Fold this sequence. Notes:
single chain, mainly alpha, two-stranded antiparallel ribbon
Amino acid sequence: MSISAIGSSSVYSPYGGVGASTSSPVGETSAKDEFLKFQAMTPAQKMRAMMLAKLGVTEEQLKAMSPEERKKVEDKLKDMIKQQVQNDPDKKGQKGLVADILA
């Protein structure tokens, strides 16, 4: 029994670009490579990558942005994290979950 590829030949991935390709031309990473790269990330890095993916931005694109554009995206990420923490039913009423460690 064989499993055929479902969907298009590539999908935007939260860990750095286009992944899930059924074939891997020279110079491109395979789905396995993308998966291993994602699994090597810390939980915080995974969360950031997934949130950037929701915004349709990769780390590489973020690094290439002007300081003003980058600040807008970083502020949006902060807002998304705060929203996620505030909406977590298991953490309701707890203090100190979101801290500004740069202050």
